[in-house]
Protein: Aspartate carbamoyltransferase
Amino acid sequence: MSQQMLLQEMMDKFGFKKENLAAYLGVNGKILNSWFASSLSTEYTPMPNGVFNYISEFIEKNSLSGVYNLPLRNKISFFGKNHLLSVEQFDRDSIEEVFSIADLMVPIARRKKISRVLEGAVLGNLFFEASTRTRVSFGTAFCRLGGSVCDTTGFTFSSMAKGESIYDTSRVIAGYVDIMVVRHPDRGSVSEFARASNIPIINGGDGPGEHPSQALLDLYTIKNEFSRLNKSLDGAHISLIGDLKYGRTVHSLIKLLSLYKNLKISLVSPIGLEMPESIINYASRNGNIVSVESSVKKGLSGADVVYATRVQKERFESEFEFRYESDFHINSEKINAFCNKDTIIMHPLPRDSNVGSNDLSTDLNNDDRLAIFRQSDNGIPVRMAIFAILLGVENIVHRNLRDVEWSRPVYISFADAAFHNL
Ligand code: NCD
Structure:
């Protein structure tokens, strides 16, 4: 077989694009093109025997097992590297795989089982922007798999305050830890970290860009809640409400939702804080109807899921950029008037609970439609799954489980009761 045919077979069988294949083989695009070129052309170079044999063995091994069983981290790779930077890395099948791994993690996340599968591994949690749950849940998810965590928070106490570049910071930390979670106020900054790094990088929020792990846990929550309610995601009505311009959680979530079919997605935001056009266009596929609403009543009516978001004031260019209207306060009065008995109310949190804020009200706290704490709890198994996948241990987690020997008092709150079938 010619080297060109062999390379083509590898691409066809494993769904690689040229850039994935180049990164996978550890060569640049120019070299790969020279291997693909006709042997009569001046661009042609022969492929080293070692590479030829490696690819042949790889194809043979996977063909023999009957399935092209690439590890999940390679199926969702970012240009051939094992990072999690955007939800655009997923398709429906890979999402289902992530969720079944998250299901396996639930007994560990709920403190029934102990795993040490990541013993010896160190997570670098680099947060250059405010965070509570994302930083702590990534940290605890890693600890619950047996790893250790090193944290840094804010610019003030990091060397970036001394003028260090993203490249240098990333390269240095990659020499200390095995995987990094990075949050940074600039869109695209986490990809810059990834370019300088030879270890996996997870985007924990890049300014108004994306927040892929949050979208995965949001979708995991929707699917869990729907299975309890005997609903299916295809054909559902999802309302996203609030600051859709700067909210990175909704940017990632709507892209993931668009992998499902025949959804009705209502985007409800005050004038000036609408979802960017490019994301709406991306999400309008698979028969999904995305409609922009300025009326809260119209946008929420009949929704299966209401996903509210906080106004991202910290991203406003001036404090006068926008004045939020009281209409966007989501409280029990509006939910009772416009929604159904089985509508799920979600929020990525934090919500602004100050008096007079226009965020999700606390008057829904004893309403079992409020799924926000079940949602934040789901952050642990989903983030454990992400770590297991990126560090290649998702298939051995179940082999390393033992029972916990300690106990803690368990109180099931009203909002959790529905979830526990009480
Ligand atoms: C969100 C974020 O940081 O993007 N929070 C989170 O990670 N759960 C939402 C927000 O800050 O409003």
The mean pLDDT is 91. The longest strand covers residues 122-127. The radius of gyration is 23 Å. DSSP finds 16 helices and eleven strands in the chain.
